[in-house]
Design goal:
Length: 128
């Protein structure tokens, strides 16, 4: 069983800067966090994870649905016990130094019969 705290879908957008300005300035949605690395930027809002689409990519394609959980390790263990197979053996982590809020974000992906990938993720204060 998953007990979600927050959920989001990932969208690839044609212009991430324009999308962020619209969400933040026009709709007034607060930016939850972002990651800036050479070659890509990701921005999270309530319900959305936005990526800059590749030049030859499709726009507004939903690539995964995600559920934020309080204890990712316990949730993964329960789901594995129920037969869910994850893409990796271990839960992955985003380097907290590249997360704008300096939070520790851990995640893991798995396939679903919904036609999209699914992700579990956990957000905790950084231990730095």
């Amino acid at each position: 069983m998953i007990t979600p705290i927050e959920t989001h879908v990932r969208l690839d957008v044609p212009n991430l800067k324009t999308a962020r300005e619209y969400l933040e300035n026009t709709l007034g949605l607060p930016l939850l966090r972002s990651v800036v690395r050479p070659g890509f930027t990701v921005a999270w809002y309530s319900g959305l994870e936005l990526w800059q689409a590749e030049d030859d990519g499709e726009y507004s394609v939903t690539t995964h649905v995600a559920w934020q959980v309080d204890d990712i390790d316990a949730t993964v263990e329960r789901l594995r016990g129920g037969g869910v197979t994850f893409d990796t053996e271990e839960v992955q982590a985003i380097d907290s130094e590249v997360v704008t809020t300096n939070e520790r974000v851990r995640y893991i992906f798995f396939d679903t019969p919904l036609g999209v990938k699914a992700e579990l993720y956990e957000v905790k204060p950084s231990s730095n």
